[in-house]
C-alpha cells in the first residue's frame, strides 16, 4: 500500500483549494480542533447548532482520507456533539456525508454534517436521511 504524505491544506490542488470555502479553516468558526481536522459552524445552518467536521487537508472524499484523518474526524464528531449538547441540548442528531456529485456533494472538500434535531422540528422525522429518495423513504407504510 502506497504511503500518503500529509500536505498542508490546499497544496494538493492549489486552484481548487483557492475556491474552497473550507480552505483554510477560519479560527472564528472552530468549535473543536485537531491537528488534522476541525469542527466548524455551518454557514447555512439547517437547525440551531448545525456544524461541519472537515479535514484540514483539501480532500474531496471520505475514501481518500488517511487512517489518521479518519480517526481525527471520528474524535471530532464526539467533541462536536459534546459542545452542541452543552450549548443547544438537542433531542437527536443527523450525521451525514454527501460523497461525490451523484450523492449531492457541491463543495468538493469533504465535510461531515452534524445536524442537531429538536422534537417537533419536522412533522414526522422517521426515516431521517432516507428522505433523499422520498418515494422510498417511508418503508414502514409499504
Notes on the protein architecture:
This protein has 142 residues and is α+β, with helices and mostly antiparallel strands. The protein has a single domain, classed as 2-Layer Sandwich (HIT family, subunit A). The chain is 22% helix and 18% strand. It has three helices and five strands. The protein has helices at residues 14-18, 67-88, 134-137; strands at 30-34, 37-41, 51-55, 92-96, 112-117. A hairpin with a 2-residue loop joins strand 1 (30-34) and strand 2 (37-41). The radius of gyration is 16 Å and the shape is globular. 24% of the residues are buried. The model is unreliable at 1-13 (pLDDT under 50).
| Proportion of helical residues | 10-25%
Overall strand count: 5
| Computed Rg | 16 Å
What's the N-to-C terminus distance? 45 Å
CATH architecture: 2-Layer Sandwich
What percent of residues are in strands?
A: 15-25%
Overall structural class, as computed from helix and strand content, comes to alpha+beta
CATH superfamily: HIT-like
Q: How are helices and strands ordered from N to C?
A: HEEEHEEH
> What is the CATH third-level topology name?
HIT family, subunit A
If helices are DSSP runs of H or I spanning 4 or more residues, what is the number of helices? Answer: 3
Major beta sheet, strand line-up: 1-2-3-5-4
Major sheet summary line: 5 strands, antiparallel
Shape: globular
- Assigned CATH class: Alpha Beta
